[in-house]
Amino acid sequence: MLKKKERYNVAVVGATGAVGNEMISVLEEREFPVENLRLFASERSEGTKLSFNGYEIPVETLKEDSFVDIDIAMFSAGAERSKVWAPIAAKSGCVVIDNSSQWRMNAEVPLVVPEVNAHDLKWHKGIIANPNCSTIQMVVVLKPIHDVAKIKRVVVTTFQAVSGTGKKAMDELLQQTVDLLNFKDITIQVYPHQIAFNVLPHIDKFLENGYTKEEMKMVNETQKIMGDSSIRVTATTVRVPVFRGHSESVNVETEKKITAHETRELLSKAPGVVVMDNPEKNEYPLPIYASGRDEVFVGRIRDDESIENGINLWVVSDNLRKGAALNAVQIAEELIRMV
Ligand code: NAP
Ligand code: 12T
């Protein structure tokens, strides 16, 4: 368990990846009280050095005793690594903040978005899960609405950037785009189809019910984070040829009436949310502007005229920041405030 200190020893596992890289930047920018930063990745990265606060830090491979002196370990090296190494890290006495899907639905593991359920951090047993990127940005906006009008049902369609899949997927979108513009043949490796100039209604694996794992994460994780399994959620998750920033069309049905106007007022005061909703000036959230920013942007707020109590929203956020690295660092900040 975490003990109060001036500065903490922090490990980033998956430091060379898209999320890990962002994690190092966020720790630096927010001046997280780091005593010692240790960086871990696969054997492929041995010899690599990454810079943090002006220091060049060597990337190491994981060993049984890697976590002995660590206070907080942030994992973003895939679910398989988290499955094996998170319990080893927790046993060594450090708190694990895990970005993978491995532990999210485990009843012993809190699933936390600080603006929504920071209180759940109190019952952690060594592992804390960071939710899926698409879920995080949606619940930041849903929570204030749920508190005043009680949400009955959510219908969401996502438009997800390739950086959600990692470095290789970003390279693939870039290379396919360059090749197509040069009338060359393309290589398809990461996704089952060409992603450049295309839209794929498929994120993560297909399940027996016909939904993808990504879609079911949005259903199950939303209920767990909001602490209300009566909220019905249905999702369609779609990959678009965008490098950074997930967008979502969110339809919300509530028990009590809340108008678009009231929703705009409510969300403009909500923590971590920026309302950007001036259709007369063509102003609405866009992934190119959300990229590199910390907030969740919401616009196109409209009454759903097809039902009694419903609203439509357009929600955009940087999937590598609030969707992953930033949320993990905010969890760490909350933890050290609590000790
Ligand atoms: P990425 O760019 O592919 O990076 C993967 C990282 O894992 C790299 O640093 C890689 O090291 C490291 N790694 C791979 N195998 C390893 C091993 N055997 N031991 C130690 N490190 C190993 O992927 P990413 O986008 O950063 O995502 C990483 C993970 O974060 C994902 O798998 C997912 O679980 C999670 N994630 C979560 C969210 C979210 O919604 N919160 C969003 C995106 C990703 P090398 O460079 O040496 O290969
Ligand atoms: N397959 O954290 O491909 O469970 O965009 C996040 C993003 C899994 C996750 C993606 C994925 C996760 C993706």
Could you give the topology of this structure?
Layout: E1 8-13, H1 18-29, E2 34-40, E3 49-52, E4 55-60, E5 72-75, H2 79-91, E6 95-98, H3 114-117, E7 127-129, H4 133-149, E8 151-160, H5 167-181, H6 213-226, E9 232-239, E10 246-254, H7 260-268, E11 273-275, H8 287-290, E12 296-303, E13 310-317, H9 321-338
Parallel strand pairs: 1-2, 1-5, 2-4, 5-6, 6-7, 8-9, 11-12
Antiparallel strand pairs: 3-4, 8-10, 10-13, 12-13
Helix pairs in contact: 1-9, 4-6, 4-9
The protein binds NADP nicotinamide-adenine-dinucleotide phosphate and 2-aminobenzene-1,4-dicarboxylic acid.
What this model shows, in words?
With 339 residues, the chain is of the alpha/beta class. It folds into 2 domains: 139 residues, NAD(P)-binding Rossmann-like Domain (Rossmann fold, 3-Layer(aba) Sandwich), CATH 3.40.50.720; 185 residues, 2-Layer Sandwich (Dihydrodipicolinate Reductase, domain 2), CATH 3.30.360. Helices cover 31% and strands 24% of the residues. The chain has 9 helices and 13 strands. The chain has a 7-stranded mixed beta sheet, with helices on both faces. The chain has a 6-stranded mixed beta sheet with strand order 9-8-10-13-12-11. α1 crosses α9 and α4 crosses α9. The protein is globular. The model has no long low-confidence stretch (mean pLDDT 98). The structure holds NADP nicotinamide-adenine-dinucleotide phosphate (NAP) and 2-aminobenzene-1,4-dicarboxylic acid.
